[in-house]
C-alpha cells in the first residue's frame, strides 16, 4: 500500500501545537495514534462539496488526462482532531490531499476551514487538481493546481476576489503566488501544450515522490513556443528556486542554468 501526503500550510493560518511547561498545560502524547492517521480527523459531511470535487474531476480529466491513480473512493475530512486522539501531538487546520491506498484508489482530502468559509472552495479546487497525481511535489504542480482552482471556482460562481488580491500583493514575494502567476502565464503563452506538462515526470529525491520534468515537456514544443515558455519561467524562477525544498522541488530549464 502506497501513501502520498502533502501539507499545504500557506493558505490559511495554522494552529500550531504548543509545547509548554506552565501549570495546568496538558502534556501531549508523541506516540503514533492507535488508529489510521486519516481517522484521527473529523469527517466533513457536505454533499455540495462532494459534488464540487467530482465536477472538478470531470472538468480536469479531458484536459489533463486520467488520474495517475484511479479515484475509487474519496473522503472529505476537517483537519481537526477527533476527541479520541485529542491528547496526541497531531497537526491541525491544514489542507492536504492524501492517497491512503493506491491499490484501491482510496483518497482523503483534508480541509483547514469549514464549508461556509470564503476560502473553502478555492482550497478545495486546488486539492481537486492534486487528485490527478498526488505523488508530484513541485512548484509547477502547485501553481497549476491554483490556476485550476481559479477556473473551477469562477465557473461555479465562487468568489476568487480574496485570493486574487493576495496573489497580486505577494506575486514577487511568496512562492505560492509566484507559482500561480508562472503557470497562469504559461497557460496563456502555450494554451494547447500547457495541459500536457503533467505527463512528464521523473522520480524526486524523496521516496515515493515525483516532480515535473520540465525539459522533457519543453522538448515537445515548437521552437517559438519553447522560447516563450522559457521566457515565462525565467521571470519567476528566482523566487521558486530559492524556495525549493524537501517539500516542493523546482527544476530550472536547461537554457536557464548557469
Describe the structure.
There is one protein chain. The chain has 258 residues and is α+β, with helices and mostly antiparallel strands. It has seven helices and seven strands; from the N terminus they run E-E-H-E-E-E-H-H-H-H-E-E-H-H. The protein has two domains: 1-135, no CATH class; 170-258, no CATH class. The protein has helices at residues 47-64, 120-130, 139-155, 161-169, 175-189, 214-218, 223-242; strands spanning 7-8, 41-43, 73-81, 95-101, 106-111, 201-203, 210-212. A five-stranded mixed sheet has the order 1-4-5-3-2, with helices on one face. Strand 6 and strand 7 (210-212) form a beta hairpin. Helix 1 crosses helix 2 (120-130). It is globular, with a radius of gyration of 19 Å. It starts with 6 loop residues before the first strand and ends in a 16-residue tail after the last helix. Mean pLDDT is 90; it is low at 1-24.
The SSE order reads: EEHEEEHHHHEEHH
Low-confidence stretches: 1-24
Query: What is the tally of beta strands?
Result: 7
What is the oligomeric state here? single chain
What's the alpha carbon Rg, rounded to whole Å?
19 Å
Which structural class do you get from the secondary structure elements? alpha+beta
| Rounded average pLDDT | 90
Number of domains: 2
Most strands sheet: 5 strands, mixed
Q: Describe the strand arrangement of the main beta sheet, using strand numbers.
A: 1-4-5-3-2
Q: In what range is the share of β-strand residues?
A: 5-15%
Q: Can you count the helices?
A: 7
Shape: globular
**What's the N-to-C terminus distance?**
41 Å
Classify the helix fraction into a percent range.
Answer: 25-40%
Amino acid at each position: 500500500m502506497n501513501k502520498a501526503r502533502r501539507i499545504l500550510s500557506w493558505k490559511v493560518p495554522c494552529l500550531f501545537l504548543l509545547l509548554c511547561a506552565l501549570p495546568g498545560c496538558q502534556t501531549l502524547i508523541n506516540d503514533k495514534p492507535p488508529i489510521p492517521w486519516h481517522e484521527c480527523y473529523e469527517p466533513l459531511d457536505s454533499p455540495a462539496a462532494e459534488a464540487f470535487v467530482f465536477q472538478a474531476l470531470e472538468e480536469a480529466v479531458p484536459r489533463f488526462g486520467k488520474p495517475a491513480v484511479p479515484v475509487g473512493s474519496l473522503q472529505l475530512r476537517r483537519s481537526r482532531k477527533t476527541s479520541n486522539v485529542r491528547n496526541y501531538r497531531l497537526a491541525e487546520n491544514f489542507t492536504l490531499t492524501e492517497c491512503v491506498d493506491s491499490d484501491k484508489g482510496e483518497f482523503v482530502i483534508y480541509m483547514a476551514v469549514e464549508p461556509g468559509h470564503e476560502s473553502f472552495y478555492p482550497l478545495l479546487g486546488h486539492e481537486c487538481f492534486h487528485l490527478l497525481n498526488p505523488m508530484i511535489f513541485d512548484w509547477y504542480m502547485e501553481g497549476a493546481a491554483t490556476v485550476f482552482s481559479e477556473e473551477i471556482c469562477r465557473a461555479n460562481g465562487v468568489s476568487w476576489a480574496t485570493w486574487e488580491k493576495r496573489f497580486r500583493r505577494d506575486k514577487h514575494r511568496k512562492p505560492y503566488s509566484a507559482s500561480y502567476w508562472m503557470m497562469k502565464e504559461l497557460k496563456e503563452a502555450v494554451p494547447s501544450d500547457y495541459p500536457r506538462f503533467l505527463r512528464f515526470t521523473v522520480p524526486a529525491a524523496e521516496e515515493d515522490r515525483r516532480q515535473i520534468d520540465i525539459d522533457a515537456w519543453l522538448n515537445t514544443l515548437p521552437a517559438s513556443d519553447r522560447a516563450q515558455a522559457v521566457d515565462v519561467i525565467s521571470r519567476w524562477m528566482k523566487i521558486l528556486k530559492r524556495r525549493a525544498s524537501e517539500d516542493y522541488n523546482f527544476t530550472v530549464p536547461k537554457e536557464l542554468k548557469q
